[in-house]
Amino acid sequence: MARLAKWSTLGIGLVAAALLAGCSGGGSDASSSSASDAASSSAATGGGDIETMTWAVPSPVMSMDSAVDPNLPSIRTQSTAFDRVLAQDNEGNIVPSVTSFETPDPQTIVLTLRDDVKFWDGTPLTAEDVAYSINRHVGPDSTSLQAQFFGTVESVEVTDPKTVTVKLLAPDPAMPTKLAVFAFVRQQAYDEAAGEAAGGPEKPGMGTGPYSIVSYSSADGVVFARNDAYWGGVPKAKEIKVVTIEDPETARLAMSSGEINGFFDVPLIATRQWDELDNATMSYVNGGYMDYLAMDTSRAPFDDVNARLAIAHLLDRAALAQPLFNGRAVAATSLVPEVQMTTTFGSEAGAVTAAFAPIPEFSIEKAKEALAKSATPDGFALDLAVDTTQPWMSPLAQNLAEAAKQIGITITVKPVSAADWGAGLFDPAASPLQLVSLAAPTTWAGELPPVMVGEAAPFNIAKYATPEANELAGAIAVATTSAELKEPLIALMSDVNTNVPYVSLFNEQVAVAIGNTLVWDGGYSYFAPGQVWPMNISGAQ
């Protein structure tokens, strides 16, 4: 999920991911800051009731329908009200939600409904509602922004009143995770009656989740009321408010004053100030947040590998990780997040990573040499859009622009809104140079490469689809064990690091501020966006 999809591969996002019942489990490593340190969080006893809690997200919720707005802040907000077809636990494993699942063969998923699930209006959840909640993302006529994740689905059919069968065109080890992250359960009759208004302020949706929607607007946020008849138990908070605060310092002041009780996705560049709050605990988790520089290989100047290498050699990733993220990110080694390498390959992860060809090192001289060999030896000029809601982007882009000047390349940095940045990633008229943020929602190292590389990749911003890359991405997409994944992954990551359609920049931690009046039972997890997260929160006692 871009972020846009930090989770819709995010998407977006991100995005997103154990991927299979047979893939290695594991998940995110968590730590808490010294705002009062992990000890203070664990010292507080949870279980208390909460009258009202207010959470802030860093960008507006443009729709309560993930098919319309799959951005991570919106996914977090939608998760308050809407269950998913399946769910994730704190380690990223797939667990039952309103359905359980079986995979009788690699191209079939059988979903079985729970008996006790009802919508907020009291009507029972039906197999038709579950099939609708998946089918709306399927097929060439789908307008869903999540459709890219369901391209391997051949059919979704109700096979009896309690069973839905999903047939796949080819094995897709990620499909259970996609159902757990992207397939929000919505009432078919409500959406059909609402028409184009579905997800909007007047008709936000009818769900089965622990909270119903009292009011919603993109400007004012969302007010949720507790669903005391929730099949998963009664949540502790009577009311939840989700508001938008785009400026991190404004959000910090709101947290300090008690105006908000929590803030998702604190920019890592700002965490030093947040760590000093005396009424909140900062939780940091390692996960699948990844940053890249993409170069469109189908257009000049980046249809020339030497022009791409010139740019790659201008990026001082190791030196920038500390100032851009307060040390809470590391220079990436490939398209694949470190946590996915560890959970997929275990003790072999280091050796597999070491087998990847290295990403080009920072060197002005090598950048000059590469440019001299290119079709544009005198340099070129282009724009680089930066999302103003992701504070690392602008300083990195400015640093790149300054380095580029030294070899005759002009890069004009263009600050844009999150929406415009996301739209630009897919706009053929946009600059061929793009910064990309993705969030991988699984623990499987084969998740992102076939999403980003090859002719079948739905998020191939770099348009990189050589015959060899296509074949390797295809092999990765159908691999179901680490043994099957290892060789094609090494080959494709070495290809990408050598031919640099993407420069893998950073693997970030995730930062969340949690007020000391609350306890996140079990600790905050990277996979929380794939959960009905309010069910994990109670009042401190």
Task: Describe it.
It is a single chain. The chain has helices at residues 37-43, 72-78, 127-135, 175-181, 188-194, 248-257, 271-275, 305-312, 317-325, 338-345, 349-354, 364-373, 393-405, 418-424, 449-452, 467-478, 482-499, and strands at residues 30-32, 50-57, 86-88, 94-96, 99-105, 108-113, 153-160, 163-168, 211-217, 221-226, 237-244, 262-263, 280-295, 329-331, 381-387, 410-416, 433-439, 502-515, 518-520, 537-539. The protein has 541 residues and is of the alpha+beta class. The strands form 5 sheets. Strands 1, 2, 9, 10, 11, 12, 13, 14, 17 and 18 form a 10-stranded mixed beta sheet that branches. Helix 8 (305-312) packs antiparallel against helix 12 and helix 16 packs antiparallel against helix 17 (482-499).
Strand and helix map with partners:
Layout: E1 30-32, H1 37-43, E2 50-57, H2 72-78, E3 86-88, E4 94-96, E5 99-105, E6 108-113, H3 127-135, E7 153-160, E8 163-168, H4 175-181, H5 188-194, E9 211-217, E10 221-226, E11 237-244, H6 248-257, E12 262-263, H7 271-275, E13 280-295, H8 305-312, H9 317-325, E14 329-331, H10 338-345, H11 349-354, H12 364-373, E15 381-387, H13 393-405, E16 410-416, H14 418-424, E17 433-439, H15 449-452, H16 467-478, H17 482-499, E18 502-515, E19 518-520, E20 537-539
